[in-house]
Amino acid sequence: MSLTSPRRSGLTDQVIAQLRNQITSGEWPVGSRIPTEPELVEQLGVARNTVREAVRALAHNGLLDIRQGSGTYVLATSELAGVMHRRFAEASPRHVAEVRSALESTAAGLAAERRTERDLQQLDALLVRREEAWRGGDAARFVAADMTFHMAVVAAAHNEVLGELYADLGDVLRNWLTEDVGPELRPEHHMDHATLVEAIRSGDGETAAAEAAGYPFACLSRPRTAGE
């Protein structure tokens, strides 16, 4: 997706809209550094002050993080996600786990009732990817694969409000999972999600909900080693 030169009326609002679209569409994913100010000026064909004002507005709304001497990075995919990130970044791990448990348990139960064949194919593929990431031993890759899998479970519930809420909490949940997993994957920490997928496939909402509800607390209750 390329940026285009906006009309001369309401330039700042138009630039804000284009930059926001780059973020929400995934062209600029969370954690990535956006083009520099001179690059944006060249691509958009507007004055430096207009670009600066637009970037500051998106930073104020929580979508961008301006780091002096480093650049500007994507912090969240929506204004609500940005608010969630700021508000709950320092929340208690147990409280985050409780919210994740409630959302994913509800989603898994609904997914067992509403999943389509396409949803099941997606879950099967993402489960395989999650296991491959675990076997590969790369903690960051595993966290990404695990988050994608759980997002697919929520998507299979086909509840737009639940899906949007989970997505907006995504950064908070990802940070929690990254901290919980730590820099090294250990065999004793592995949790098999095959039972969850099979429960969704067979339409067993009770089992699916129970499986999903237990995962966050299994993470919290597992034994820790020195340095974690």
What are the main properties of this structure?
mainly alpha, Arc Repressor Mutant, subunit A, Four Helix Bundle (Hemerythrin (Met), subunit A), 2 strands, 66% helix, transcription, DNA binding, DNA-binding, DNA-binding transcription factor activity
Summarize the structure.
This is FadR family transcriptional regulator. This protein is 66% helix and 4% strand. It is mainly α and 228 residues long.
Structure characterization notes:
With 228 residues, this protein is mostly helical. The chain has 2 domains: 9-76, Arc Repressor Mutant, subunit A (Orthogonal Bundle), CATH 1.10.10.10; 81-220, Four Helix Bundle (Hemerythrin (Met), subunit A) (Up-down Bundle), CATH 1.20.120. 66% of the residues lie in helices and 4% in strands. It has 11 helices and 2 strands. The chain has helices spanning 11-24, 37-44, 48-60, 79-88, 93-114, 117-136, 139-155, 160-168, 170-181, 194-202, 205-221, and strands spanning 64-67, 71-74. Strands 1-2 form a two-stranded antiparallel sheet. A hairpin with a 3-residue loop joins β1 and β2. α5 crosses α7 (139-155), α5 runs antiparallel to α11 and α10 (194-202) runs antiparallel to α11 (205-221). The model is unreliable at 221-228 (pLDDT under 50).
Q: In the CATH hierarchy, what is the architecture of the largest domain at level 2?
A: Up-down Bundle
Distance between the termini: 41 Å
Which oligomerization state do the chains in this entry correspond to? single chain
Instruction: Give the CATH H-level superfamily of the largest domain.
Output: GntR ligand-binding domain-like
Strand % is under 5%
- The domain count comes to 2
CATH class of the largest domain: Mainly Alpha
The helix tally amounts to 11
The total strand number stands at: 2
Low-confidence stretches: 221-228
Strand order of the largest sheet: 1-2
Class derived from helix and strand content: mainly alpha
Question: N-to-C SSE series?
Answer: HHHEEHHHHHHHH
User: Quick one: overall form?
Assistant: elongated
User: CATH topology of the largest domain, which one?
Assistant: Four Helix Bundle (Hemerythrin (Met), subunit A)
Radius of gyration: 20 Å
Mean pLDDT, rounded to whole units? 85
For the biggest sheet, the summary is: 2 strands, antiparallel
Helix content: 55-70%
